[in-house]
Amino acid sequence: MFNYTQQTENIEFVEIAPASELPSGERLFVEIEGKSIVIFNIAGQLFAIGDICTHDDGPLGDGDLEGYNIVCPRHGAEFDVRTGKVMQMPAVVDIPAYPVKVVDGMIQVGMPRE
Ligand code: FES
């Protein structure tokens, strides 16, 4: 399973940055526990996904957003940033999507635990 956004058990939230560093329409690139992750602010809602395309490791976070879909800049695969679900070929495997929350003005991303 790659969509961790609804998972409530075995998730540990990691503090990332002040929410003021991620205004609406912007994105933030972070590395959490060795994983490249990009966090989007879309109209005030935050979404976090793995920054690596499952087609051929393209830098997903560099792509354009079309609504809630991120378009891989390499070959045009699309993924829903809300769920990590692949929406458009040539990718066929979902990417990880992580839960995000803001606590006391700080962005936190939930990382799955074994
Ligand atoms: S690497 Fe993303 S579509 Fe090919």
What layout of secondary structure does this protein have?
Blueprint: E1 11-18, E2 27-32, E3 35-42, E4 45-50, E5 64-66, E6 69-71, E7 78-80, E8 86-88, E9 97-98, E10 100-103, E11 106-112
Antiparallel strand pairs: 1-11, 2-3, 3-4, 4-9, 5-6, 6-7, 7-8, 10-11
Bound molecules: FE2/S2 (inorganic) cluster.
FE2/S2 (inorganic) cluster (FES) binds next to loops.
Distinct ligand kinds: FE2/S2 (inorganic) cluster
**Percentage of residues in helical conformation:** under 10%
The CATH architecture: 3-layer Sandwich
Count of spatially separate domains: 1
Task: Characterise this structure.
It is globular and about 40 Å long. With 114 residues, it is mainly beta. The protein has a single domain (11-112), classed as 3-layer Sandwich (Rieske Iron-sulfur Protein). The model has no long low-confidence stretch (mean pLDDT 96). The chain is built from no helices and 11 strands. The strands form 3 sheets. It has a 4-stranded antiparallel β-sheet, with no helix packed on it. Strands 5-6-7-8 form a 4-stranded antiparallel β-sheet, with no helix packed on it. It is 0% helix and 46% strand. 32% of the residues are buried. Residues 53, 55-56, 58, 72, 74-77, 90-91 line the site of FE2/S2 (inorganic) cluster.
